[in-house]
Give the backbone structure.
Amino acid sequence: CGGGPPPRLIELVGEEAFPGKERSPAKDEWWQVSTIALVVHSDATAQNAAPAIISEYLETLTRRTEEFLRQRCSFHEIVTLPPLSKSGNFSQELKVQGQRLQVPYEILIVFSSREKGGPETIGEATMMTQMGGTVIENSAIVEIGILRVADFKMVFMAQGSGTESLEQLDVPIGSNQPSPTNAREILRARAGQYALDRALSSLGAACQSGK
């Protein structure tokens, strides 16, 4: 499947929001504002992408992000926007929402991942309990971008990655195990959480250094 997932932020927001290669993002004091908008999106539109994180787990990751932003970045009010539509016109949606709410900045957090897997013999080679099954690994990235609403320019970017693996026996043992489908959804959420925590760490460092 061609390695890890490719970055998606520039594809979703559009190249016009990003500084050219000849110059770095303009210095900005976004960490000093008291109110900021937050958009959390799980993307599955890249080639060979894994399915998106389901809404139940994405909501949990959103709450985790909100708590981090209040504690580490001291944003007093976080306006969490509804999920972006599947129309693909993300750039226009972000512009409209930012202007409607009259917030100076929007934090956009994008999850994406790829999965690989195949049949494996699960269990220690020296044990009698070896069984056939499937091992699946999810490789996730989280991209964070802070958009200045006034001119729709990206003033901060960070990225984190994470991986998680899952062993599924061909003959499940025990009735309290999650279904194969639910187990994969948990896998994607866990890998995404690891990636999110690493990306947020970079964001938190930027917030602290600006104070």
Summary: The first strand starts at residue 35 and ends at 42.
